[in-house]
Amino acid sequence: MNVFDSLVLLIPMFPLAAVLLNGLLGYRYSHEVAHRLAWGSVGLSFLCSIAVFIHTIQTGQAREVVAYKWIFGGDLTINLAFLIDPLSCIMLLVVTGVGFLIHLYSVGYMHGEEGFTRFFTYMNLFMVSMLLLVMGNNYVVLFIGWEGVGLCSYLLIGYYFDRVSAAKAATKAFVVNRIGDAGFLIAIFLVFVHFKTLDLIYTGKKFIFERMTIADIAIFSQLHYLYTTVKYDIPAGYKNVHGFMENMRQTLKLKSLSDSFEATSL
Q: How far is CA 216 from the centre of its chain?
């Protein structure tokens, strides 16, 4: 495991460690220690996200980081893995950056409240869930993050559980989330039935080729031939198409775009 992979794994691990420490041992130390652990862990995740973002922008490549080989059997393989590309890096910066500021603000806002440590345990758990949601490389990890966000919404809305209004609002949020869960699960089942995988990268590849007609592939293949072999001066509008297909070729590791005919059988 290289430095980049370690940084990626540390992004959700820092707030997860704070959840365990504050959740299990928070009653043994002061509120000062509890909130410093909470916002400090998110701050460290933000610094790791910046480093990952810079590396990804410099290389321009998407990376898959496998934390644990989780479920496998028959056609189904599910890893606890993270997909790091420019989009996920931007979302990492948003989640950890804004989350860090919210944690700092909450220190003063919740000062003197009962359950101070419990609140920051919920907040760090929310951070972990959001990070799984934006980093997950497959729909199962995405669903775990989704469930975590729903759980934290219920816990935070019902933070003052001794108040009837807060308890009712938390119950409504819980019920609405369960409706969303049902739709999400049905979608995951349909994705697996159709694509035989829950991996975001491979479902994307198969979706692109299933939506392309043979005529589309033939035209793009000829443009690629004219541009690379004959050096024909292709109009500017078509060069963008060539760039798209060349990017696709590299992503799918095809020797030439004529191999796309075989790729349609994936």
A: 32
